[in-house]
Design a protein that fits this description.
The complex is a heterotrimer of chains A (849), B (419) and C (187). Chain B has helices at residues 18-23, 28-34, 38-48, 60-65, 90-97, 99-113, 127-142, 173-180, 209-221, 223-227, 260-267, 301-306, 325-339, 345-362, 370-381, 388-403, 405-414, and strands at residues 76-81, 117-122, 158-163, 204-208, 237-244, 250-255, 277-281, 290-291, 315-320. With 419 residues, chain B is an alpha/beta fold.
Chain lengths: 849, 419, 187
């Protein structure tokens, strides 16, 4: 057989050996008399834009599928009778194209005339007015008057409220279907579609009812007119009144670029810019609508100190000097910093703890168990070797995602993977116990028992090495494992995405070692392997890079003596050994996977300083509370999960008397840094990977951090290396809790993590997000629900060994039987109460109320 | 008198039953086709000169030959039975009265292009026809003409009936594919053409009912016999559906190239009450209308194209001198406005506002400049729409404006109707 | 002839006759501000007004075009959604969008009338009040309430008269309240 077409791209051919080869043929075309040589198959639109000719469009958007419906981009091609839409027509060698002649100009004007014929001219009251594409193009190309006399079509007088965040005005719609396509192709929610036809066509939700979707608001962002609008931003301002600041989203480690719009010192909206950042105009609900926590009334605005057992407001001088005295006089101290702080703050924090107060007892994050597991993650993902672009990783033939509810934890990474997986030649393999949105795009989706990831991975490893596969205890079929191994064998590049569930489960270490071994084995067989972490805190990777870790200095240099990790600190504290603990931005009592233990431990600590934006459960136990700043109120940098360094820019001054964390740290340590830039200069010296990056040149794309070269210096974490050599025996995987005494009494394994609308406890302070998901829930599979006779929305009692809660049920079709999920975000349902240190994944019982 | 070929069985009792069909040499063509090479069948079709009966008149053999010969790639055949063009009712007769003729043609077509599955996309309103087809299919399955190893060969074929939901646009081939796939019936971008990327992303042939019904006859009687009927460039029998102000409206199967005069006056019995012919539409409402002096035009693809109109589905609609052309134009545009899918701007807005302008003229509120506005709107729509629906709407209006401009002007000027 | 003129004081009489003519004609001194006031023509550009429609709804939709076009940037508009639109209460404005804040800084305003031209709903109009003097700078900022208050001179009232008026001086400033029923031509 000869070369056959694949899809509509004539550049890709499959040879007889079913290999895919891409042939680049250049085509020379003449556009408005100017000759230009482009790759064959380039769209006329792109070629014309390359040649410097502008072509207006509505329905075209680079990342979406081609529609060719708005007909704004019509161009004339010599020899063709009809005008052709340039956004769907590829160039052919020798084509002569006219984009600016009279025929084309009249066609454009006539399209605008048609679009405006039914478009209400309510620009004065439309939120889009001032940044509307229809407005702009009409001014540029349009007719100045309309020949039509009849009434415009009008669907409704009042705008339709489709969700707590989305308003729709059908009258203004110009049917470019960008909303439908972004919802379908990038977000994967498939919540929008057309109803009716002809002039009465409406792009709206199913049966025009309230949307039950991701509420991501990407439809608002892509809408060229004011048909989709944001409800929280509705009638708040005009675009030209807003001062816009480009910064980075704080809610997960994907690191989306967003733009905060402020007017007179209040945040009015967050939007994303087209083709900017790795998110390329998409955001999720929490990024786009979770901004109101910045100016929440619950924010701490003044320092507080404990007097007579009660926290009372005090002056900054008093608070700082007291903190300073206590920290320097204490014998044994420790520090825990949130992975939501900037690199500069984290660097300064570890410098303060190490150089001023002489301790290595520092850790970032308190949501998982021990440092050996985090070390294993750092090792498995080669974090010390610098950043890997996610776009590079997504070019792989096979993408394997394990240990992450990626659609909830890292929604934008989910979008990027979905768009990539639309290419049917790619294999997407997903392993996660719950059914998640990305499952619909996956070639194979494994539903394994929570905590049995190591069995799955060692199974794949065995299958790769043609050994017997045993998957006992993981509920995964051996044939699936064999298929995965087969696909891995045929793929030449593989990207493994590793989620934070590996840090949440008791056997996470085994899983991470398994991944490291798998990567090693695949690499040994000549494949190109990339292991990417999927992290839940925006600067988790930066925190490790900056050495906020008991055994690493900045740049993963080994410390002389290892300090204590979070668990170690709490254990020491529970014995009454900790004289002072300095906690920044971390709510240990609510997040540590054993609430009772954490609370007891902290209550025995000598002195607690908490620096946070809100009065958290932990802050309530503190002796001194220092009000810090939110992401919109500070300058600095964050390193996202890829290792991409991105710049935060200040949109507002810290609320009332709150201060930037950097200046608080400086005053406690007596440092003399004027700005984040000064600290960054020092980071460049300390962390080799940051050496070549200049703070001022950080733009919207960010810069990938380079390798820290720690290996060459021979000082890379011995603990990490040592543990990677303790190889698990792949042919004899451990059985899963065979003698668990509660197995029958408590049939459900409880897994937890972030919900799509929330991230940690931070997003709980955002009222809009609370409106999207007002109360917590427990999610079980449809099979379990049927067996228990529970319907969606019923109230059930979730009873664990240590805690019980009454929750509403959500039934998820296709989740694994015997798993229950409760989001970790809700204050009224502290899910960490179900956990007990050392017991691993908690088991629960679910019964009807 | 021309002996009907496609409609020869329709007056037989129980003509839709397989027994009756088998008695009239039914499925003989299938058994002889299965002994032929697929390439030979395609060549026979090419030699016969059969052109698509759906409207565009593309050579059927050529269309089939575009399909890849790679046996590893699944292929599909779709029968376009979404007979939505106003005035057209020819396919309905075949479906309801002689479904096996269609099914036999489809099986042969599937064999020729190597498709193992075929879909009949039937218009939603044809509930009776759909039931007839289902019955006929189950009969054919029982007799072994469908399913696995048809007539002892190693050829397998399944045919499914898919009912539309009432949209004219689904008669457009790519919108039809979208609709079968379960999506909103909207046309797709071409290229890629369905012959490369069609139903479910696979190479697909889409043929009209009447085209497929011709296939068994060509196989039975040979390409030469077929090519000898009618003019050289568009041979074969053609079913003319005559409606409107004639004495005997109905279906008349005649050779291609029969003149309009013969169709209307000889076969359909002339104009009712022996009135004067004012205008006639030769092929469904998208075709521009013709007037009395064009009556001697042969009704075939090329001769009508030379007159600036088209054969389309050969639905001849006759209007006598009591007809108000402005009203005809308005009603036609109302149809297109209602049926526009709304995907592309010029068709969605253009048909809507053209209709509104025509309604204004018709309801005696026309203003000076309205006819120029219509001209301008036609120019803005024509050639700029996504699919031919918009073009069809404009062609119909342009036909009316060309031949009866004075009537439009009279409406605007005198605020009343001429007739 | 010249002699005769000199003898009979012709020029003098001529001059005096004019004087006496004016003596008996209508006086042109306007007793402003104590008793009378000049009412300007409709084209006059004085203190702005925010108008309502016939049903009493605010015409302003807070589109901020006046603020945008203002050369001195003396207009501040902050819009909001008109939420008082449950079934019982009457909407305040003609659309869902209404001004939360509408302020004109009269000290900066140069009364060019651009805001009037820019307004898509004829909500803002230049009125005919010209007594803008006040004792504190606070009253130099005209807020929404002040702008919405109906004026002494209705928009449709034809100007170009002198009318009887009353001089009022209080803490807010000075004002001359006209009595529109007693109007007269100035000359």
């Amino acid at each position: 057989m000869g070369n056959e077409f694949v899809g509509d791209k004539p550049r890709r051919y499959i040879t007889q050996n079913s290999e895919l080869i891409t042939i680049f043929i250049m085509a020379t075309v003449k556009i408005n008399g100017k000759e230009i040589t482009v790759e064959d198959g380039t769209l006329i639109l792109d070629a014309a834009r390359q040649a410097g000719f502008e072509i207006p469009t509505f329905c075209y958007q680079a990342r979406l599928s081609r529609l060719g419906s708005c007909r704004m981009c019509l161009v004339e091609i010599a020899g063709q009778k009809k005008l052709q839409p340039s956004c769907v027509t590829p160039v052919l060698h020798g084509m002569e194209i006219f984009t600016q002649n009279e025929t084309v100009k009249t066609a454009r004007a006539s399209m605008l005339e048609f679009l405006l014929a039914n478009h209400p001219l309510d620009c004065p009251t439309c939120d889009k007015g001032g940044e509307c594409e229809l407005q702009d193009l009409t001014f540029k190309y349009g007719p100045r008057q309309s020949p039509f006399a009849e009434r415009k079509r009008r669907f409704h007088e009042k705008d339709e409220i489709l969700s707590p965040v989305i308003v729709k005005n059908h009258n203004r719609c110009i049917h470019c279907e960008r909303c439908v396509r972004i919802c379908d192709e990038a977000v994967g929610a498939k919540a929008l579609g057309g109803i009716g036809r002809g002039a009465m066509l409406k792009e709206t939700s199913f049966l025009n009812k309230e949307l039950d979707c991701d509420h991501c608001g990407n439809c608002i962002e892509v809408c060229p007119v004011g048909s989709f609008m944001s409800l929280p931003y509705r009638y708040k301002s005009r675009p030209w009144d807003l001062v816009e600041t480009d910064t980075v989203c704080p809610f997960c480690a994907t690191g989306c670029q967003l733009t905060i719009g402020t007017r007179n010192g209040s945040v009015l909206r967050v939007r994303s810019k087209i083709e900017t950042g790795i998110n390329k105009e998409t955001l999720c609900a929490r990024g786009r609508f979770g901004y109101d926590f910045i100016q929440s009334e619950k924010r701490l605005t003044k320092p507080m100190a404990k007097k007579n057992g009660r926290l009372t407001e005090c002056s900054w001088e008093e608070a700082i000097s007291q903190a300073k005295n206590k920290l320097s006089s204490a014998k044994k101290i420790a520090g825990i910093a949130s992975a939501r702080l900037t690199n500069e703050e984290l660097y300064l924090f570890q410098k303060l703890m190490r150089n001023v107060f002489r301790t290595n007892n520092i850790d970032s994050g308190s949501r998982w168990t021990d440092k050996r597991t985090t070390d294993a993650l750092i090792n498995a993902c080669n974090l010390s070797e610098g950043g890997t672009s996610i776009f590079e990783a997504l070019k792989a033939d096979l993408i394997f995602i394990i240990g992450s509810s990626i659609s909830d934890e890292n929604p934008i990474t989910d979008y990027l993977i979905r768009t990539t997986a639309a290419d049917k030649r790619k294999n997407l393999i997903l392993a996660y116990p719950r059914r998640i949105k990305l499952d619909s795009s996956a070639t194979i989706s494994l539903k394994h028992t929570p905590g049995s990831e190591d069995i799955v991975i060692s199974g794949i490893l065995n299958a790769l090495q043609n050994q017997a596969v045993k998957t006992d205890g993981s509920q995964v079929s051996e044939s699936d494992i064999a298929t995965i191994a087969q696909r891995m064998k045929t793929a030449s590049t593989i990207s493994i995405f590793l989620g934070t569930d590996s840090l949440r489960f008791a056997n996470g270490k085994e899983m991470l070692l398994g991944i490291a071994n798998l990567a090693k084995a695949l690499k040994a067989s000549g494949k190109n392997i990339k292991v990417m972490p999927l992290l839940d805190r925006c600067n988790q990777r930066g925190a490790w890079d900056m050495g906020v870790h008991p055994s690493f200095l900045p740049g993963y240099k080994k410390t002389n003596s290892d300090g204590m990790d979070c668990t170690g600190i709490l254990e020491a504290s529970s014995k009454g050994e900790m004289d002072a603990i300095y906690i920044i931005g971390e709510d240990i009592v609510s997040m540590y996977p054993d609430a009772k233990f954490a609370k007891e431990a902290l209550s025995k600590a000598g002195f607690i300083i908490v620096q946070d934006m809100f009065l958290t459960e932990t802050a309530k136990m503190a002796d001194i509370v220092l009000p810090g700043a939110s992401y919109a109120e500070k300058e600095g940098t964050w390193t996202n999960q890829e290792g991409r360094l991105q710049r935060l820019r200040r949109a507002l001054q810290p609320i009332k008397a709150a201060r930037e964390d950097l200046s608080i740290l400086s005053s406690i340590g007596g440092f003399e840094y004027k700005s984040a830039r000064d600290v960054f200069e020092e980071i460049r010296k300390e962390a080799p990977g940051y050496q070549d990056i200049s703070f001022d040149s950080l733009n919207n794309t960010g810069v990938l951090v380079k390798g820290h070269g720690a290996e060459k210096q021979g000082s890379r974490g011995q603990g990490v290396k040592g543990s990677s050599e303790t190889k698990i025996n792949p042919s004899n995987p451990r059985t899963l809790e065979p003698s668990n005494p509660y197995l029958d009494d408590y049939p459900f394994l409880l897994i937890t993590g972030n919900h799509l609308f929330h991230s940690g406890r931070l997003s709980q302070k955002a009222d809009v997000l609370k409106r999207l998901l007002p109360e917590s829930f427990v999610e079980i599979s449809d099979k379990d629900a049927a067996a228990l006779g529970i319907k969606e929305g019923d109230r059930v009692i979730v009873k664990g060994k240590h805690h019980e809660a009454v929750l509403r049920v959500r039934v998820k079709q296709g989740s694994l039987k015997g798993t229950a999920f409760i989001p970790e975000n809700f204050e009224d349902v502290p899910v960490n109460c179900f956990f007990k240190k050392g017991e691993g994944i908690p088991r629960v019982k679910i019964s009807k109320q | 008198m021309f002996e009907p070929i496609l409609l020869k069985n329709i007056n037989t009792a129980d003509s839709h039953r397989i027994d009756v069909y088998l008695k009239n040499e039914g499925y003989k063509a299938l058994s002889s086709a299965l002994k032929m090479q697929p390439d030979t069948i395609i060549q026979t079709l090419k030699d016969s000169g059969l052109r698509g009966r759906g409207g565009a008149g593309f050579s059927t053999g050529l269309k089939w030959s575009f399909i890849t010969k790679d046996p590893t790639i699944a292929k599909y055949l779709c029968c376009n039975a979404d007979e939505g063009e106003p005035g057209t009712f020819k396919d309905r007769a075949i479906i309801e009265k002689d479904p096996h003729e269609l099914i036999e043609g489809m099986i042969i077509a599937c064999y020729a292009i190597g498709a193992a599955a075929a879909y009949i996309y039937i218009r939603g309103e044809f509930a009776f026809g759909a039931n007839r087809l289902e019955e006929a299919l189950s009969e054919a399955y029982q007799k072994g003409f469908l399913g696995k190893n048809i007539l002892g060969s190693d050829f397998n074929c399944d045919i499914y009936v898919h009912r539309g939901a009432g949209a004219y646009i689904c008669g457009e081939e790519t919108a039809l594919l979208e609709s079968i796939e379960g999506r909103r019936g909207q046309p797709r971008i071409k290229p890629p053409f369905p012959a490369q990327v069609g139903l479910f992303g696979k190479p697909t042939v889409i043929n009209n009912v009447e085209t497929l019904a011709c296939v068994p006859h060509i196989i039975n009687k040979g390409a030469k016999w077929f090519a000898s009927i009618g003019p050289e460039k568009s041979p074969g029998p053609k079913i003319f559906g005559v409606s409107g102000h004639v004495k005997k409206p109905g279906l008349y199967e005649l050779p291609m190239g029969t003149t309009a005069r013969e169709v209307i006056y000889t076969h359909a019995g002339g104009i009712r009450d022996n009135r004067k012919l004012k205008a006639f539409i030769p092929g469904g409402v998208s075709a521009p209308m013709l007037i009395e002096k064009d009556l001697d035009t042969p009704m075939d693809f090329d001769s009508l194209a030379a007159k600036g109109t088209m054969l389309g589905s050969a639905a001849v609609m006759v209007m006598d001198d009591t007809t108000c052309i402005v009203k005809v134009a308005m009603r036609t545009m109302e149809f297109f406005r209602h049926e526009s899918c709304g995907k592309c701007t010029p068709c969605r807005e253009g048909t809507d506002w053209t209709y509104k302008a025509l309604r204004r003229i018709e309801s005696r509120q026309g203003k000076n400049g309205d006819i120029e506005l219509l001209d301008r709107l036609c120019g803005n729509i024509f050639g700029r729409t996504f699919c031919p629906l918009g073009d069809g709407a404009v062609m119909a209006l342009r036909g009316a404006l060309k031949n009866f401009r004075d009537e439009f002007e009279f409406h605007v000027k005198n605020k009343r109707c001429m007739v | 002839m010249n002699l005769l003129k000199k003898i009979f004081f012709i020029d003098f009489i001529k001059g005096l006759s004019l004087t006496f003519k004016y003596n008996v004609s209508r006086t042109i001194t306007m007793r402003y501000p104590d008793e009378e006031k000049w009412l300007p023509y409709q084209r006059f550009r004085g203190l702005h007004t925010l108008n309502r429609d016939s049903q009493g709804r605010e015409l302003c939709v807070a589109c901020e075009l006046c603020a945008k076009v203002c050369p001195t940037q003396c207009i501040t508009v902050i819009p909001m959604e008109d939420v008082g639109t449950d079934l019982k209460s009457v909407p305040r404005g003609i659309s869902d969008r209404i001004a939360k804040v509408y302020e004109i800084n009269l000290v900066r305003c140069l009364f060019c009338g651009f805001c009037e031209d820019a307004c898509p709903t004829t909500a803002i109009r230049m009125g005919r009040d010209y007594e803008l003097a006040c004792f504190t700078l606070d009253c130099a900022i005209a807020d929404k309430k002040k702008l919405l208050t109906p004026r002494d001179i209705p928009a449709e009232f034809e100007g170009g008269f002198v009318v009887k008026a009353k001089f009022i001086r209080n803490d807010e400033g000075i004002k001359v309240k006209p009595d529109l029923s007693k109007k007269k031509r100035w000359w």
